[in-house]
Amino acid sequence: MVTNITPVNTAPGLEGFRVPSATRPGPAQSGTAAIAVADLTKSYGDVAAVAGLDLEIQVGEIFALLGPNGAGKTTTVEILEGYRHRDGGQVTVLGHDPERERKQLKPRIGIVLQSTGVDRYLTVSETIEMYASYYPHPRPTDEIVELVGLAAKRDTRVLKLSGGQQRRLDVAIALAGDPDLLFLDEPTTGFDPSARREAWEIVKNLAALGKTVLLTTHYMDEAQYLADRVAVMAAGRIVATGTPEQLGDRQTEGVRIRFRVPERTMLPADLQGQTSTDGCVELTPDDLSQTLHHLTGWSIENGIELEQLEIVRKSLEDVYLKLTGDRAVLEEALLGDPATAARPR
Predict the structure, then answer these.
(1) What is the pLDDT of residue 182?
(2) Pairing outcome for strands 88-93 and 33-44
(3) Which of 87, 225, 325, 333 could form a disulfide bond with 239, CB atoms 3.0-4.6 angstroms apart?
């Protein structure tokens, strides 16, 4: 069962933050694409890492790109960042071709890699100020340290920071130039549960500032909590796109009703499902609303309590594993091309 997590709608600590000057290049207007990709291809020898990928990410969106190792995620992101040549296709990032107009694009993006090498003997504030000096319109250091939760450590040397604090500093460095678009590569790998939650709130705060975020992660709960939309990549293509709740028809396909009734209770024939190992009855209805209405009506009419009554939907991880692990599903998603489905990257 999917645990429902209520999204954070406010961003504590953002009061008083500077609105970017009208003289600096601002983000595109809401409703426009921050990233637009059509028929992107990239091969290494005879191995197709990216095989006709189409993708669109809107301004202000937190977008999670999921996929197994070798699916082509890293190659795709490096092309979007302007660090890798593409073989074919159209790519636009914040209105620029990242390969041909990297100089114009670079000041408008921030990148958080899985690990960042910084001078261990600089303080937190010195590190941020050094990177901010490379940009024409940097964000004030005081705002950045507040945003990433390092205000109390601003005068601490990098070598004295914990692993989680160093990761916060990585995000701070990416924010130094006040970018419109951030690329976050596995931002919470190696974090304990508490540190992961804190990192999630930082990402939510970025969205509250109007930033567009492209996130790659192997954690399904992270994508579930953070992303406005999710894309699953396999064999060099996008095989599914949607909100975390809608991906793979999670809301309708394979939905089950679970409940427990007192021992020796005789259920109506049309409400007799499978009994699980914990003693709960499980129904897989064709019409969820009708079956639930029938079940609760029977319960009330007969004075029988339905204990542990719940509606169970497939988790995001269930959908992900089906999309990336089931060859038949993968071939269908890739337009029935078995050769493409067999590619290792």
Answers:
(1) 94
(2) antiparallel
(3) 333
